[in-house]
Amino acid sequence: MQQLGYGMWDADNHLYESRDAFTRHLPDHRKRDLFWVTDERGHEHIIVNGKLWDYIPNPTFDPISLAGSLTDMFSGEKSKAQVHMDGFKVVEPLSLRPEYQNRDKRIERLDQQGIEACILFPTAVSGLEEWTRDDVKLTFDLLWAFNRWLEEEWGFAYRGRMHATPVISLADPDEAVRMLDWVLERGARAIDLRSAPVPTAKGYRSPGDPIFDAFWARAAESGILVCVHAGESGYYRYSGDYTGRYEFKPFRTTAFEHIYHHGRPIMDFFAAMVCHGAITRHPSLRLVSVENGSDWVAWLVNLFKLYYQRYPGSFPEDPVTAFERCVWISPFWEEDLTSLTEYVPVERLLAGSDYPHAEGLSEPTDFIKGLTAFSEGDARAIMRDNLKSILAG
């Protein structure tokens, strides 16, 4: 663990859902729409909407991936095959890590890691909305059940240190506002929203469409962080025209699919929010990109500059100004963060560890290793002050 001399504010921590995360508050009339089954090998699975929900191959999370076990792969030092060939331990019993599913144990772990506060994202639920996209009422029934469990088990601002993110869909604009009000009443300072076109009952819509203005107005007024965390975007429906694979296949993604999907859902989301005017109509929105990396930022900003110069009348305002005003980025530590500051001011960068996922950092404060080219003051801003300024209220 890096000794910083101050407590880190981590923009990307994770919990693992317990077995009753979706069922504890599931309405009786939905008991056949989400339930657990055990196959002939004794492995447990979740059935959602009449189909095997394989977004997480092992939804019990037992055994669980060792935190940071793929760090060498993501830093470019080794391939995934080399990591496994080296005999590195990649899984462990969940019983060894009670802090992954217990908030008081997690507070103890934060203390050990030198983390003062964090945004805490769930894991499995990030794939839910895409799976239920054809049934808006089912989507909300399941998200209501999940968010009630999340509030009970973790709280939305536990001890002022762990800000667990309820997950909200825009698919029903009125219900989205009702859910947002509900989480705000319970102290939420951050929510999780996916980067994708919105599957409403009347067809797909841009998240920047005015039909969602009541939601964006409430989010802007409250100052809540709208975190757009990596998850199942549904982009396999587009790459499928090349591959014939129209559904997400966990851990079986091809090289083409990796390239096709890289950075596109998040870039498209922010392009829509800017070009379709949501950011202009709600200029105090706080939008945070989490676990999407940052190499897409230069591409998007340069496109904003190019097309604003060519067609200024097609934009509600200067798109770069809009983007810089409302968007914060939590990049990957191994990226070229110095070059990123050519497109995003230092005060808009947030350190996020992705702990305890395999592709994240085994020790969150190790993020500082990616900031060696920054001044001590700028590094502290990224590691602590920037997130604290917008999350602490």
From TrEMBL:
<keyword id="KW-0456">Lyase</keyword>
<dbReference type="GO" id="GO:0005737">
    <property type="term" value="C:cytoplasm"/>
</dbReference>
<dbReference type="GO" id="GO:0019748">
    <property type="term" value="P:secondary metabolic process"/>
</dbReference>
<feature type="domain" description="Amidohydrolase-related">
    <location>
        <begin position="134"/>
        <end position="386"/>
    </location>
</feature>
<keyword id="KW-0378">Hydrolase</keyword>
<dbReference type="GO" id="GO:0016787">
    <property type="term" value="F:hydrolase activity"/>
</dbReference>
<dbReference type="GO" id="GO:0016831">
    <property type="term" value="F:carboxy-lyase activity"/>
</dbReference>
<protein>
    <submittedName>
        <fullName>Putative TIM-barrel fold metal-dependent hydrolase</fullName>
    </submittedName>
</protein>
<dbReference type="InterPro" id="IPR006680">
    <property type="entry name" value="Amidohydro-rel"/>
</dbReference>
<dbReference type="Pfam" id="PF04909">
    <property type="entry name" value="Amidohydro_2"/>
</dbReference>
<dbReference type="InterPro" id="IPR032466">
    <property type="entry name" value="Metal_Hydrolase"/>
</dbReference>
<dbReference type="InterPro" id="IPR032465">
    <property type="entry name" value="ACMSD"/>
</dbReference>
